[in-house]
Amino acid sequence: MTKVTMTVNGKSVSGDVKGNTLLTEFLRDDLRLTGTHVGCDTSQCGACVVHVNGEAVKSCTMFAAEADGAEIKTIEGMANADGSLNVIQQAFQDYHGLQCGFCTPGMVMSAAALLKDNPKPSEAEVRDYLEGNICRCTGYHNIVRAIMAASGQDVPAVAAE
User: Fold this and answer.
1) What does the alpha-carbon distance between residue 134 and residue 44 come to, in Å, rounded to a whole number?
2) Which residues form the 2Fe-2S ferredoxin-type domain (predicted)?
3) pTM above the 0.90 mark?
């Protein structure tokens, strides 16, 4: 067992982990932060995206011991200080950027990383950035619209049926 200490959503946490414990397992099982989802076990779906030292990381690809000393932000840490939804979360709600909601935490975390690095992305840049996140319900159109709205830009029109 290895002792790990990290800051998660602004709080110092620690625990003992096996060498092969994934960060996603530590977050979900040890810290009970279940908003970080496990969708594929192959690092393809993006449901497990968290921020590690400010960078978007698929937490199923990182061992918890690798995050020792790191600053981690999960979907649970995305809300505003008063508990209200942040601008990205609110846009996902306003523009119906979710259906079943399983991929939503990873999508929101990826969107936050994109908007941090590129505050005014084009629609094509949003679509390209989300390539590592899979949604089986929405067809992505409303997710893209939500991210564009969160960036303060004009929102693409709804596609004709």
Assistant:
1) 8
2) 2-78
3) yes
